[in-house]
Structure formats: structure tokens, C-alpha cells
Design a protein that fits this description.
Order of helices and strands: EHEHEHEHHEHHEHHEHEH
Radius of gyration: 17 Å
CATH class: Alpha Beta
CATH architecture: Alpha-Beta Barrel
Largest sheet: 8 strands, parallel, barrel
Structural class: alpha/beta
Shape: globular
Number of domains: 1
Distance between the termini: 10 Å
Amino acid sequence: MRKPMIAGNWKMHKTLTEARTLVAGVLDKLDESAEVDVLICPPVQLLFPMAKSIANSKIMLGAQNVHEEASGAYTGEVSVAMLKDTGCSHILVGHSERRHVFGESGDRLAKKVRAVVQGGLIAIYCIGETLEDREAGRTTVVIDQQIDEVLASDVSAEHLIIAYEPVWAIGTGKTASPEQAQDVHAHIRTRLGSVYDEATAQKLRILYGGSVKPGNAASLLTQVDIDGALVGGACLVAEDFTAIISAVLAAA
């Protein structure tokens, strides 16, 4: 059975004082014995202090982005080794904002995923279609392309998590119905079986992201191929984030 994960992508939010208050609130409500992985992905300047704040807890630390090179003249960038040094165990790669706002290509994302995996950390590879793609009936075409251009058998499945985030549901208040999300997750798992094999695909965790909130989390997380959530805005409020964690436990 795949262990669920609830991950929070803070994006460009929280000062140090605000971050400490948020984490303290999550820790106050978190059941340390719960069979769920919990991950926070703060902005890069908060990684070291947040590592200290979550020390000796079940919460893991992740980064929102990484450069594909190990070192060099890349002003403003950070490497896998640098992020590992902060205590990160996971790194997001391919979030829709990195694709559509910053123009990251499949070729570059393939290099990033390999850098993360080869550096011994876990890549959370984000995929998802735009509203235009969905309305044109191109959801599975886009998903297949995003998988095929980045993943291959040389990417260790043990160091990989997939996050399906329909772009039209990120920060819009819209959410894919549980049935819509399940259909795409099932398709992703089948496609992963062609990259690896069926047994490996069954072990890989696939998270859902896109306006996940306490009110819709339970219905999404009960779906057979949804193994947790990559949470945006709701992870910035301790009560909401822990309510989503409780929802995945209730759904187990």
C-alpha cells in the first residue's frame, strides 16, 4: 500500500516570523504517529530556519526549485547539493508556474529531475494541462508528453513522486471533480507502467494539486489512485493544512 503524502508549496509567501508561527501551529495539531508523510516547501531563504523549526518532528523539508548544474556562474540559483545541505529531502520540479511563467522546457526539466535523483533527493515532478488543453480534449496527450519528455528508466522510481496539477485549477478556486482527478491519475499510472513496469507504477505515489482545501480534500483523497495532495494556498493556514492531513488519514 502506498503511504500518503501531504505536501505544502508555500510559493513566495511568509516572512521568517510568519513562517515560524505557521510551523508552530502545524506542529501543535499534528499527530506524530499518523501514517502519512508531511512535507513543507518554503521559499529558499527560509529553508535553514525551517529545518530548525521542524527538527525532531515528522515534517520533512522540500525546495520549490533547483538548478540542473552542480555549480557555476548562475547568479541567483541553487544546486541540489546546496539544498541537501539545508536539510531538504524533496525538490519540486516542473510546477506549472516554472513552465508557464518562467518558460522552463521539457529538456531542462529532464535535466533537473536527473540532477535531483542523482543527488540522492526525491524529485516531485509536476505535470498538468491548461484549460485550453482540457477543453480541446488534449489532457492525456499533454500528460503523456510531459511524462515522456522527462522520465525514462534511468530515473530511479524510488526517488520520484508525481504531482498532477491541472493548471486551470491552481489558485483559481476551481477543482477537478474526484472522478476527473481519478481518471487522470489512473492514466498517469498506466503511462508510468510503460516507462518502468506495472509493478513499479503501482508503487509510485501520485499526488493531486489544484485548490485542495479542507472541504474537498476527503472526496479527492478517497480515490484509489490519488496518494495525497500538493497543497497551495491552504498550506499557509495551519488549521487548513492539518485538516487536509486529517482528511487523508480518514480516507485511508
